[in-house]
Specification:
There is one protein chain. With 93 residues, this protein is of the alpha+beta class. 20% of the residues lie in helices and 46% in strands. The chain is built from two helices and four strands, in the order E-H-E-E-H-E. It has a four-stranded antiparallel sheet with strand order 2-3-1-4, covered by helices on one side. The two termini are 21 Å apart.
């Protein structure tokens, strides 16, 4: 039997380092820095507190990705203006 694998959906929150960070810039850069075989399926903005928002990225990635979401988190954390990145949910897609 040959197993080809599937995809995984990772819901990742990207927090800006300050309230004046351009979230559109982070959205644009996010798709550029993802590893090969990964793509962003959807992007939402989520209210946090006092008008501050974070991005919620729905990243589709191969199921057999070595290191799980660690490479994605590191890539996103390297974007100028990003303060913190955390994976919220990971599920088969």
């Amino acid at each position: 039997m040959i197993y080809l694998g599937g995809n995984v959906l990772a819901v990742i929150k990207v927090y800006p380092e300050a309230d004046d960070v351009d979230l559109n810039y982070i959205k644009t850069k996010a798709s550029e820095v993802l590893p090969a075989g990964h793509r962003i399926g959807k992007v939402d903005e989520e209210e946090m507190a006092f008008g501050l928002k974070c991005l919620v990225l729905y990243v589709v990635m191969p199921e057999q990705t070595e290191g799980g979401t660690e490479t994605v988190e590191k890539a996103l954390a390297g974007i100028k203006g990003v303060g913190r990145v955390e994976t919220d949910i990971v599920t088969r897609y």
